[in-house]
Design brief:
- This protein is mostly helical and 107 residues long.
- The chain is built from five helices and no strands.
- Helix 2 packs antiparallel against helix 4, helix 2 runs parallel beside helix 5 and helix 3 runs antiparallel to helix 4.
- The radius of gyration is 18 Å and the shape is elongated.
Length: 107
Amino acid sequence: FFLLFMGSVLVLFLLMGALRHRGFPPKNPYHQATERYRRFLFLSEKKGLLPKGPAETPDEFSQRAKATGIPRVEEMTALYQRARFSGRQSSAELDRMDEILMQLKKS
């Protein structure tokens, strides 16, 4: 019985981990904003706009990207940094990040 119980617990933990890494959004605003910012960076690079350097800060990237015309880079960076450093972000701000991502996808 004990082995069956421990096996069930192990399977449950493995399933939870697998589901978490398959696109289920984290609940913490910091993590949600970080995921959106990473998507923004990925899309920017994929569209051939500009890759972010590995040692480049978000502000440095924002300033460099602004000069090349990446749309809404300053706004996206500000929303990301607010969530990252304050630990709080409203659903309206997360929705705005989603809107910026949609605009970038369409451009």
